[in-house]
Amino acid sequence: MPVQSNKTLQAMTTSEIVLFPVASRAGDIERCAAELDRRHGEDAVSFWKTECRRLANELTSLGCSEDEVRNQVMTFQAEVQAELVRRHQVRAIAESRSGRAIKR
Predict the structure, then answer these.
(1) Which pLDDT tens digit goes with each residue over 39-97?
(2) Stretch 8-21: mean pLDDT, rounded?
(3) How many other C-beta atoms lie within 10 A of the C-beta of residue 22?
(4) 104: pLDDT confidence band, cut at 50, 70 and 90?
(5) What value does the mean pLDDT take over residues 12-39?
(6) Quick count: other Cβ atoms within 10 Å of Cβ 59?
(7) Model pTM score
(8) Residues in Cβ contact with 101 at an 8 Å cutoff, skipping those fewer than 6 apart
(9) How far is 31 from 35, CA to CA, in rounded Å?
(10) In the chain, is it the N or the C terminus that has fewer CB atoms within a 10 Å radius of its CB?
């Protein structure tokens, strides 16, 4: 345990910044998925471009390399896409259970 405490203390005293992965930004992921689920067409495209640029600018300002920014934005995009799929699956299951599903 003392090693971990010293390492934490060292990081704090040297002003080391620890970046958390974009995938852990659950609030941003859920917010963007909800907005993209609500928006359509050019409105959705514009919103999405703005969000990805905002994230890239934030990561750049924190000192991330261009490659790391690209990787983090791609990870964020994948996480938002997965959340959109999850939302659609939940909705489809709910509709199926209520008898409103499209009969094939």
Answers:
(1) 999 999 999 999 999 999 999 999 999 999 999 999 999 999 999 999 999 988 888 88
(2) 52
(3) 22
(4) low
(5) 76
(6) 21
(7) 0.71
(8) 92, 95
(9) 6
(10) C
CB 66: neighbour CB atoms within 10 A? 10
What is the Cα gyration radius of the chain?
A: 19
CB atoms within 10 A of CB 73: 17
Q: Is 95 helix (H, G, I), strand (E, B) or coil?
A: helix
Separation CA 42–CA 40 (nearest Å): 7
Of 83, 39, 104, give the one whose Cα is nearest residue 96: 104
HSE-CB at 60 with a 13 A cutoff on CA atoms is 9
Residue 103 has pLDDT above 90, yes or no: no
DSSP character string of 22-91: GGG-HHHHHHHHHHHHH--HHHHHHHHHHHHHHHHHHHHHTT--HHHHHHHHHHHHHHHHHHHHHHHHHH
